[in-house]
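Aim 2, interim progress. The first record below pairs a target sequence with its structure tokens.
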Amino acid sequence: MVEDDLGTLGLLADVAEDAGWVARPCRSLRQMDRALDDGEPSLIILDDDLPDGRGGDRAQRLHSDPEMHDLPVVLCTAAAPSRLAEIGRAVPVVTKPFTVAEIERVLDAALRRHRLRAARGTAG
């Protein structure tokens, strides 16, 4: 997860860990890149407005990368509607402020879609 606000980052990490996931909190895209070098995550949660770039732009690049295109990415942001339209519909979005139930629902849905795509890929 990539979030520059420590409170939000802690909350997202707690939600992930309570659900049984291992959280890798990052405060910048640069930290995320280093974490990706250590291994592929099951899911990435990205804020859009980060100190070193736009999470939505990075999400779009991840989806165009042949090695990362199946990786579920969720954007968690307070971005304006015009920015959300710019990002497109390819990335699920949780708008801030969010509830724990909302973030859990979106993350579970993203992981379910990922598992379905993976199952279809191995079945063919």
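The second target in this work package is listed in the same format:
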Amino acid sequence: MSRAFVKETETVEELPDRLVSAHRNLVTREGFAQIEAEVVRLHEQLAAAHEGGDREAIARVNRDLRYWNQRLGSAEVQPEPTDFSVVSFGATVTLERDDGRVQKFRIVGEDEADPAKGSISYVSPLAQALLGKSVGDAVKAGAMSAEIVAIS
């Protein structure tokens, strides 16, 4: 019998899990809300994929749900900083670089970091250089140095 007349069973391999950071999953309240919203959104996508019989989408969404459910379960919501004498998780730091540029960064959890929008992960090299420092301290920021001019 010709293979042209045999219906092949479509199999979709389970996608490998997304890598989970070995660092503690510290998050701001906003970051925790973002994780919760992502889980809800993915459950909606999974229902739609099941409804449409889209096996590839089901596999992709299931993988993402495993990741975000793990992140939700391991999230450690950190209190808002109240002491702005030193840089801490959740603080916004204003830096003045050697070339005169002024930049602001909020130190947040890994999943909520978005440097283009002014938030950096607490495990990033810049955040690691800033944590525990005070206004007036200089830190290495890439190839240059920068001075902390404000903490809020």
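The mean pLDDT is 92. This observation will shape the mutagenesis plan for the next reporting period.
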